[in-house]
TrEMBL record:
Protein name: Phage major capsid protein
Pfam families linked to this entry: Phage_cap_P2, Phage_GPO
Organism this protein belongs to: Aeromonas simiae
Length: 511
């Protein structure tokens, strides 16, 4: 099914000066956020009332402007179907910024996330409103904000109706799961009034929305958890999550290119599939987030049971999603016991995607082992990322070199060095104007190695989990006066086709 792009025009999400709660938004914060924002480096997600529960879209671009002496921050937003439906009911119509100083040690203020609310703290923000009247030619982004609304043809709304039906089906499955898990309380009746509940009561009655009381994840619950993790990151939403019954069986991937159609006289025409088959390396993975009782009191003060469940589950999902990406790019081997102090990026937790490709390419034909220097002044091996990407493309098997699915994966420090040298300052880049390297899309993430550079299909990157191995629970850690959420599974990383991955193994950046 076609996925129509829905984006807003420029909407005001914050204004400098005193706020309703008598705080102050400084003009330089808004200017910094506009100049530093880059969705290719880190995309701000929109959250309802700032709660990390169900994501409602992303911020695609920022700019600042001064109007009547007041500095304003404007954004182009990409809402998802959930936000559109809620907004049509007159809810979550305003934006509330989440500025983060010295984001990723950049020294600048950055928009880390965007809250959606009915009670904005900043003055002068645009009221969001969705409309569905009229016609606009295909291929033109739909504007959804304020009083300016571009129009779509009936085909678009047929697609939207189909998407609504799919969403209803998912909500029905989710509702069945919720009924099964008795999520919110021992009486199975969520409280809607704010209460100053005892933390012991909240934690003893905490339930994951996708888990039964004992924490074992059946196939439906496992699928719900996987979906939630995939939605938490633009990167995770495009890689492959696979559950397997036999952790030792080779995984077959049949997407190898080649002609499959023809004819023979007197017999059927056929071509052997010859799929790649990679035995996965699965290992025990145990994720845990521990809160002291004091921290819980500050986080959950005056929340209902349902609100507390949503906040705590959101924190856990975010932590697990970050670790999946971090270990996938940094992982070298699965040691019997891990040491997060010595290996802060999970190098000893599991063998990640890059290491998997490296182990499958002992001769270094695609994972290039010789160290290279990136110097935009021309004093190293490469002066721009385009030349590096073209070099890697030529290392792939010929059948993959022109595949439109190829994506350039690049670490943040390497990408910034390239942009500072070759991208015009202040240039706005949104989804339709996104920078490309060697005419290929670019994907970056704050959990990649800072000098990482590779080319592959995102679908080629796999997270494999053994069926019936997942378990989640929340429990007291009495000896430590703390409370913990835990997620255990037998899992690992793999590449569907290792030969469809090319990378530099060691890159240094000239200063």
């Amino acid at each position: 099914m076609v996925n129509p792009e829905i984006t807003t025009g420029w909407v005001c999400i914050a204004s400098s000066g005193p706020t309703v709660s008598e705080k102050e938004i400084k003009p330089e914060w808004l200017v910094d956020m506009a100049s530093s924002y880059d969705p290719e480096f880190y995309t701000a997600t929109m959250w309802p009332e700032h709660n990390r529960t169900e994501p409602m879209g992303h911020v695609m671009a920022l700019k600042s402007a001064v109007e009547n002496g007041i500095t304003k921050l404007f954004a182009v937003l990409k809402p998802n179907l959930a936000l559109i439906e809620v907004n049509k009911e007159g809810k979550l119509c305003f934006c509330s910024i989440e500025p983060r100083p010295n984001f990723a040690k950049s020294g600048k203020m950055y928009l880390a996330a965007l809250g959606l609310t009915d009670t904005p703290d900043s003055t002068g923000t645009t009221a969001l409103k969705f409309s569905a009247q009229g016609v606009t030619p295909r291929g033109v982004p739909m504007q959804w904000a304020g009083s300016y609304v571009e129009k779509r043809d009936n085909d678009f709304f047929n697609l939207l109706t189909h998407a609504k039906e799919l969403n209803k089906q998912f909500q029905h499955i989710k509702s069945m799961t919720h009924d099964m898990t008795k999520q919110f309380s021992v009486t199975n009746a969520p409280t809607s009034e704010p209460m100053n509940m005892d933390i012991n009561v909240i934690t003893s009655d905490f339930r994951f929305s996708f888990s039964q009381r004992d924490g074992f994840l059946d196939p439906v619950a496992s699928a719900a958890l996987t979906s939630a993790l995939a939605q938490s990151s633009p990167l995770l939403s495009r890689i492959t999550f696979l559950h397997v019954a036999d952790p030792h069986a080779a995984q077959f991937d049949g997407f190898k290119p080649g002609l499959r159609t023809g004819r023979r006289i007197g017999e059927r025409f056929e071509v052997k599939a010859s799929p790649s088959h990679t035995p996965p390396e699965l290992t025990d993975m145990d994720s845990g987030t521990v809160f002291s009782w004091g921290e819980l009191s500050q986080i959950l003060g005056r929340m209902t049971q349902q609100q507390a469940n949503e906040v705590l589950q959101g924190l856990m999902l975010l932590a697990v999603a970050e670790d999946i990406i971090r270990i996938g790019f940094h992982g070298i081997a699965a040691e019997a016991e891990t040491d997060p102090s010595a290996h802060p990026n999970g190098e000893d937790v599991a063998r990640g995607w890059h290491q998997t490709a490296k182990d499958a390419d002992k001769a270094g034909e695609r994972v290039l082992l010789a160290p290279v220097v990136f110097d935009v002044k021309g004093g190293g091996d490469y002066a721009d990322l385009d030349a590096m990407a073209y070099h890697l493309v030529n290392k792939l098997p010929e059948a993959y070199r022109d595949d439109p699915r190829l994506v350039v994966l690049v670490g943040g420090e390497l990408l910034r060095a390239h942009k500072q040298a070759y991208i015009k300052p202040g240039q706005v880049r949104d989804k339709d104007q996104r920078m490309k390297i060697a005419d290929m899309p670019v994907m970056t993430n704050q959990n990649m190695p800072r000098n990482y550079f590779a080319i592959t299909f995102l679908e080629n990157m796999m997270v494999i989990t053994e069926e019936n191995s997942e378990r989640v629970n929340a429990t007291d850690v009495n000896d430590s006066k703390a409370w913990a959420m835990r997620y255990y599974r037998h899992s690992g990383y793999s590449l569907g086709e290792p030969k469809a991955y090319a990378a530099f193994d060691a890159i240094s950046i000239a200063k």
